[in-house]
Amino acid sequence: MTALTLSTSGAATLRADALVVGVAKGTGSKSGNLVLAPGAEAVDKAFGGKLAGILETLGASGAEGELTKLPAPDGLKAPVVIAAGLGPVPEKDGAYDAEALRRAAGSAARSLTGSKKAGFALPVGSVEDAEAIAEGALLGAYAFTAYQRGENKLAPKAAVGAKLPLAEVALLGAKPRDKAFKAAAERAVAMVEEINRARDLINTPPNDLYPESFAAVAAAAGKEHGIKVQVLDEKALVKGGYGGLVGVGQGATHGPRLVKLAYTHPKAEKTLALVGKGITYDSGGISLKPAGHNETMKCDMSGAAAVFATVVTAARLGLRVNVTGWLALAENMPSGNATRPGDVLNMYSGKTVEVLNTDAEGRLVLADALTRASEEKPDAIVDVATLTGAMVLALGNRTFGIMANDDAFRTSIHEIAEEVGEASWPMPLPADLRKGMDSPTADIANMGERMGGGLVAGLFLKEFVGEGIAWAHLDIAGPAFHEGAPYGYTPKGGTGSAVRTLVKLAERTAAGDLG
Known about the structure:
- The chain is α/β, with parallel strands linked by helices.
- The chain is built from 14 helices and 20 strands.
- The strands form four sheets. Strands 8-9-11-10-14-18-15-16 form an eight-stranded mixed β-sheet, with helices on both faces.
- The relative contact order is 0.11.
């Protein structure tokens, strides 16, 4: 991954391939003018105090996401200056929004693919600013190149490999010897490394990532970071009565797995359980997906990837909280052995479920994992899943929905998500929608009313949460996989959605801030 250093050099003396400075849109009396953000002073001096005017001549406006490159003058050691737009100048205390800093740093880092080193002289008014810039730059520098070998057997001399991401981010304006700044940098590196590992897993093609291989990755990470890992294979799942996992996975060549990752701290007072949907490929099963909906279904394990990344991050940061991750892994494939619409599954909880649609499989594997997680009586459970297209229709491609059995818990998660820069929205669990899942054959059906389908799925999951346990459900179907052009620190493909929210939730739980 891209390296991060807290540089002791000034912008004028730093030897790098490029310098990144911030620019903003003027407000009030300066409305319409381009404003240089703090951190750009030395660069502006090298331009004879005319940097803002030059940028305006080149068409720069300071809008968020805008990048303007120009050659550096003789007074700078770096040959290129990149002006990254931050949006409007802050009206009150002069502090730029952390998410604006994150996105500007990410955009700049993406534009520097193939470079060895870049200095980031964006405004650092606090430790939080420095951490946001570090996160954005490291997230933006991500590239998935594992399968881009550039080989050409007919003309091997013409082979060209994939460009590597920016090799080093030098953060200017921070205090390298200050413990708080050093801790913030270490947190950013640990978390982004795990987010990028989650992105790698999401982007890995399903012929290489399937339940067994995903479980092996988790086991290796557990060994490296002191996390206890337990893997239940298909035989253990059948013996244990995990009807949801077995039912979904029985049509595939690669059998299902339930992976438990347990990070414990000797002084922890709270336990947080995280449950992730890990459908490594979703064909829809017998209820086959229509043409045009299969191509990105390797991403249907994004919830499990997020849970995995969060547990490892908690371990790397040494958080004073117990965090248990449950990865419900299966392939949903059609075959002569596959579950059929109309079949009834005997779930781990003891409930029976009539399967009306085999493409509503995520809730089935999550139900077993939720029940198993509840047996350990954690203080709270959060499940994460690319669960429903209905949530995408409701909230779009960049916002995840939050449902819960406790309004205060739902509000806390929403506030945390907004704080860390992940767009989310609290959603209800209307009791009247439960009746639509009544089955004449079983205890409950896996489908209900079509309208409000994302909420129906949440109500289904709620049935499998242990009594008295605070629970929340994050439907990340929209933001988990980005099919459009990259923006900010968000790449094309897997995004690592929800990891930052879950890590902050674990930190808040460790600090006792969630009650």
